[in-house]
Structures are given as structure tokens and as C-alpha cells.
Amino acid sequence: MIDFFTWTTPNGRKVSILLEELGIDYEVHGVNLGDGEQKSPEFLALSPNGKIPAIRDRQTGQTVMESGAIMLWLAEKEGRFLGAPDDRGNVLEWLMWQMSAQGPTLGRIHQFVRYGKSIGEPAETLFRAEGARIYAVLNDRLKSRDYVAGSGRGVYTIADMAIWPWVSRYAWPETDLHDYPEVLKWYRRLAERPAVQRGYQIPHFVNDIPVP
After folding, report:
1. Would you say residue 82 has pLDDT above 80?
2. Contacts of 90 (CB under 8 A, 6+ apart)
3. How far apart are CA 161 and CA 66, in angstroms?
4. Mean pLDDT of the chain
5. Which of 39, 26, 44, 34 lies closest to 9 in space, CA to CA?
């Protein structure tokens, strides 16, 4: 049994989608970010960085923080969603791309577009341009492919699960997915998966999955 500590953010949804895809037993514990529960001593004992998500394996007592590390740990533990052995490097590079480029860039844009926390010019213009570049990188990657990693047309992996929740907030940075047709097709393909639909609503329902 896995204890899963999370909230309704893209980083939380990465892990909830993976847990649903794996079909393993887990219990959800909501960590209300608006109430500052991520800074409680109890949560900091699990995640010293004070960020969701985090997990605890009841059988071993092991805890893991940071969404990418959790995904990799779970996938390795269960032996699934890492592709074939020759795909491993490819899966890891796109997982790291999500964590180092897509997430931080789009997250910063969300702050000043969605929440009105201005960072001033020229920084806002530069971040918008970088966000558009990141979408273009993903669109180019998905040309003639069904999934971001693996050989041939690709194979569904934790890389897709990590990237998709950030794309699901395409309206927040005012992105039109029709400008990125390969991303749009991939996004819709994943949105049809029952595990993605369930994972999106954890720890609770916020809205239906937006599908342009």
C-alpha cells in the first residue's frame, strides 16, 4: 500500500495518473496548499523541500519526494512504463526535459498570467517566448509519433504522464493547442485513457478535463 500526499496541481497529477495506470493500492492524503499544509512538521518529515507530491511505502516505510523521482521509483518498482531496455535513455531525457524546462517555464507563466503576480518586463515577454518554444519542441517531437519516447512511433511511458498534466493547463498561459497540432492529437489521445481521467480528479474533482 502506498500513502500518496498530493494536491490538484500538474506535479501531483503526474503521480496520480501513474498510480492509476499501475492499478496498485494507494491511499490519498490531500495536502491543501492554500492552507499551507505543505509546511506542516508532519508533511516536512515526508518531503523536506515542502512541496507536493510525496509518497510513503507502508510495507518498507520508505518515503520519496519530488514528482519525477516518485514516478521513476514507482515505475522501476513495478517494472512498467519505462519502455524497452533500449528506450530507457530516451524516456529519462524527456522526463528530465519536463522537470527542467517545461514545468518551471510554464509554472512561472502561470504566476503572472493566471494569478496576476507580475515579474515585469522584459521578463514576462521572455517567459512567454520560452513557453511557445517549449510547445514547439514538443510538437516537433510528436511528428509521426504517438508518444514522446521510444523507438518507432513511441511507447506510452512515464514521460507522457509527466508532460501531459502541464499541457492540460494550456489555457492558463493562453496557449491555443490548435497552433501545435501534433501536441493536440497526443493530448486528446491521452485524455481518452480511463486512468488519466481518474488521475486528473485526485485528490478531488476541480473541473472536467479541458479538451479543445
Report:
1. yes
2. 83, 149, 150, 151
3. 15
4. 95
5. 34
Cross-strand partners of 3: 27, 56
The CA distance from 199 to 64, in Å, is 19
Instruction: Assign a CATH topology to domain 85-193.
Output: Glutathione S-transferase Yfyf (Class Pi); Chain A, domain 2 (1.20.1050)
CB 17 within 8 A of CB 200: yes
Q: Look up residue 4 and give its DSSP letter.
A: E
Task: Kindly write down the DSSP assignment for every residue of 62-103, as one continuous string.
Answer: -EEESHHHHHHHHHHHHT-SS-SGGGHHHHHHHHHHIIIIIH
Residue range 2-80, CATH number: 3.40.30.10
Whole-model pTM: value is 0.95
Cα–Cα distances (Å) from 208 to 2, 22, 86, 163, in that order, read 26, 22, 36, 18
List where CATH 3.40.30.10 sits in the chain. 2-80
User: Rounded to whole angstroms, how far apart are CA atoms 67 and 14?
Assistant: 7
Higher per-residue pLDDT: 117 or 27: 27
Measured CA to CA, the distance from residue 59 to residue 77 in angstroms comes to 13
